[in-house]
Specification:
Blueprint: H1 9-60, H2 66-80, E1 85-92, E2 97-103, E3 117-120, E4 125-127
Antiparallel strand pairs: 1-2, 2-3, 3-4
Helix pairs in contact: 1-2
Amino acid sequence: MEKNKGVTLTELLIVIAIIGILVGIALPSYQTHIQKGNRVAAQLALTKMAQQFERINARQGEYPTGTDGESVIDGIAASDGPDSYTFALTDDAVDTFTITATPVVGGINDGDECGWLRIVQTGATTSKLSGNCW
């Protein structure tokens, strides 16, 4: 009697079910890991932006405002900011600044529990969720 040298449909379905279970377990964990990495990159970019604002204040005696402030933010965001966040100067005056990083709608960080991240001229950092987001 000859043995069949193939895979039965039942064996194939079992393998597919096992792969589906593994993907169902691993994918949410992977997405959370990516969100945390993007959040850290956004925090780093915010810190660099605040440092650049402080350098300008030390040289010129005031913080950049309006389009000057936005150009500083855009330059750093283009080189160091993650694509999953947008950066904006949300409060600008010659003696204060507030820079906010907001998750891109529909992006990987859109559902991030921390939401927006913010830094001000004093170095104080806040987020939508008051917890360990910084």
